[in-house]
Amino acid sequence: MARTLLFNGKVITPYRIIRNGSLLIEGGKIAGIFQGRPEISDCRAIDAKGLYISPGFIDIHTHGAGGHDFMDGTVEAYIGAAMEHARHGTTALVPTTVASTTESLKETFETYKKAKSANTHGAVFLGLHLEGPYFSMEQRGAQDPRHIRNPEREHYEEILSWSDDIVRWSAAPELDGAMEFGRFLRDRGILPSIGHSDAIYEEVLEAYENGYTHITHLYSGMSGVRRINAYRYAGVIESAFLIDEMTVEIIADGAHLPESLLKLIYKIKGPDKIALITDSMRAAGMPEGESILGGIRDGQKVLVEDGVAKLMDRTAFAGSVATADRLVRTMTDIADVPLIDAVRMMTITPARIMGVDDKKGSIAIGKDADLVLFDDNITVDTVIIGGRALDADAPPC
């Protein structure tokens, strides 16, 4: 049957929670939103059993999951990661690369195109996020220094000539050529994002005026207050707070950012300017132990314990192993954020940042039926992508 009725749930809209709510799904879209169970025939029915019915989670920055990394160079890696994220409530995601050779990027583009058409069950791909190689050496983090460089038009024009799937690109705006690069991306409908940057406020403000309206993993790989010739200058972190319209993303796994900073960011920026991201590596959704950060062929061995990846000597974090359900749980349980706001930061805000809020990110008539059902502990029960449940068939109405 073409229609599905989802009933007896707590429906989370951008504005309220509808108790004993129902949704009608038709043709992969949301066709009706109701209080109570409507009298509808010729449909399949799913009893939500009092669970929350939320828009599907949207992760705009992830490197992999389920033992797969998007730099592995295989279609299987893309599909495997998409399936693992879907099990945790993510219905759409933006696969993310790392600083690498142009040859490796070209291979990634070709693999992504194949994987996009083959991905029929996992989280939907929204396009690629290039993280690098135009970064500050001082703020490079785990990015390979061999591939870090300044943005040069000939270089990024060549990269963009290989793919029309790039939807965002993270770079350090203080580098020579970065302002022209930002304008170039905006002209092509690509989101320039400030990441792995040692910029000061004046440079960030200029970058914002040149298209850099988003900040990649706030607090990670960026400058705070700096001293230059005895004088203090605000860094990227402070700039994110000073520029009201700047959007940010945070790794809300409870490890990368403590309770105090999660509360600070939420207090200043609010749910309409914050996207929750996993920034996850291949170990997301996997048992703790040894793993590989980066591509399977040339990645770095790391240790996953205490819910985060660490260098083998435990001197620093080496990546996130978060899934989207954990991010929402962290914001509600640790940062004391209302559920409706935590969901907003995992759904409509990232959708708006990526320009797909006309069809995804909220429960509204006409939008894609991408949904996740979870309990009070944000434990995922059912995931629906494009109107299709990932679990068993529902009984008739």
Report on this structure.
This protein is α/β, with parallel strands linked by helices and 397 residues long. The chain has two domains: 3-54 and 362-389, Roll (Urease, subunit C, domain 1); 57-353, TIM Barrel (Alpha-Beta Barrel), CATH 3.20.20.140. It is built from ten helices and 25 strands. Strands 1, 2, 3, 4, 5, 23, 24 and 25 form an eight-stranded mixed beta sheet that branches. Strands 11-12-13-14-17-18 form a six-stranded parallel beta sheet. β21 (308-311) and β22 (317-319) form a beta hairpin. It starts with a strand and ends in an 8-residue tail after the last strand. The relative contact order is 0.17.
Task: Please write out the topology.
Elements: E1 3-12, E2 17-26, E3 29-35, E4 44-47, E5 52-55, E6 57-62, E7 64-65, E8 68-69, H1 75-87, E9 90-95, H2 102-118, E10 124-125, E11 128-131, H3 153-161, E12 166-171, H4 178-187, E13 191-194, H5 201-209, E14 214-215, E15 226-228, E16 231-233, H6 236-242, E17 247-251, H7 259-269, E18 274-277, E19 289-293, E20 300-305, E21 308-311, E22 317-319, H8 324-333, H9 339-346, H10 348-353, E23 371-374, E24 380-385, E25 388-389
Parallel strand pairs: 1-4, 1-5, 6-9, 9-10, 11-12, 12-13, 13-14, 14-17, 17-18
Antiparallel strand pairs: 1-2, 2-3, 5-23, 7-8, 15-16, 19-20, 20-21, 21-22, 23-24, 24-25
Helix pairs in contact: 1-2, 8-9
